[in-house]
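Lecture 7 notes: from sequence to structure.
We start with the chain below.
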Amino acid sequence: MNSQSLMIENNRRAREAALSAWALPETPPDALRVRYQSLGRILLIGGEDALLYAPRLGPELRAQVLVTDGSDEPSVPVIFQAGRRLAIDGHLGHFRVELGEPGHRDHEVIDCDLILDLAAQPVLERELLPVGYYRPVNEPLVLDALVDELKGMVGQFEKPKYFNLDPALCAHGRNGVIGCSRCIEACPAEAISDDGDAVAVDPALCQGGGGCASVCPSGAIRYAQPDPLELQEQLRLLVTRYREQGGRDPVVVFQAEAHAFGPNAFAPNLLPVTVEELASVGMETLLGLLAWGVAGVRLLEHPGLPERSRRVIDGQLAVIEAILRALGRDSRRIGWMQASRPPMTEALEDDSFKPASFRTLGGKRQRLFQAIDHLYGVAPVQPVEVPLSAAAPFASAEIAEDRCTLCLACTGACPGGALQAAGEQPGIRFIEMNCVNCGLCVQTCPEDAIRIRPRLLFDPDVRRTARTLHQEPAFACIACGKPFATRRIIDTVLHKLEGNPMFATPESRRRLQMCDDCRIADMAQNDLEQLTGVPAGVIHD
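Predicted structure tokens for the same chain:
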């Protein structure tokens, strides 16, 4: 046996040993589930095709037809759209179909458990349709096969709750100002919506696409089953065991569960890992694998991948490629892989650096920086920073000193504590490690004084050290001398209130230059003088 054949055989045995030890924890019996209750009320939407199909569903289903283009002889209960606006909301067991405009005489609401959309143009255009909403190809064989499935959609059903959400970490909004909306834009099921300062996820609409967790810069949304921390630790053990068994050039291939291949469909050095959805594999996982010394990571393309999920993955890959290029590494080590005739191969060799040994610990950002810091420490090139795209979860902040009044609105809005008050002397400090590139500071600043620039600062010590962005001497209260604001703030307030009748007197404008305590005391003294007619200090017991 020649050396090449020997290596292939060693890789095959090493992979077999590594995969045999792969063990994600089973879903606990008390894990949160999403439950549906269907009574079998089905609404068919369409024209003649829907009217002809509806009788085939009885008596198991209670069918009615929403006729979109008219009919002469309906054989089931019908509702005519008659040019009215049509809107659909909900999911299996709880669909709400609305016709017309609320408050109008022709407004009508239909409640149903299932929807079969046979209209010429789909009513819902989502990439992932709600559970219980069917939009089949209008062909006889397809429709024939669907009859039994629809009849079986009566009773109780459940699915996993795919996500965990921590609103306290969410960078969506503060005080009505919107910052990050990446998860909303990433969801192919349109299950995420604005909920004021945070987002809301409808668990009944969520279908586990996972892109929301990958693009969330703060870790407020995370995949629940499997837990990302447990998945990443198992990946570390998988690669470690493969190495210990003599395997070389390992390439981890992530594949979607619905389109998965067995191990023998891949060359012996390719380690297939099946996940529910590709978009659930985040940047911290991909870079973590590189830090642990894999030759490469691939995401196996499959038909039907939602376009929003593809955009999520492409955005993550673009950030990773920029980081690797800046470090002098081959940026092609992480990327897509086309499904082809087995055995699928990938010509990547082990990198030259010493793999990391750290265990998987902490939150999303901690794990991400763990991987980056190791790759930076062993990189042939060690730049100060790398500019990144808007998809990056890192950024640097800058303040225009000629505009900033140090009102500190930005520090109150910053969800990660990246922007902080400087202390006793009025000022703003910035800790770059904490910045999630949400833009809330930019949207909140009343003076348009803040700019953020997506980038990664490589040196971990510099990244976690606070630096002062702007500082000014304090303005002292004209009554007691206590510092309480900045000269710029006082001048701005005085200027903006010029001509205001409430601040027309010298006394009222003097109070604007006092601290809170002295302002209240001065107003009380003035009220006492007006009440008694005696100057303060003259009245005695």
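Points to note: The first strand starts at residue 33 and ends at 38. Residues 307-326 form the longest helix (20 residues).
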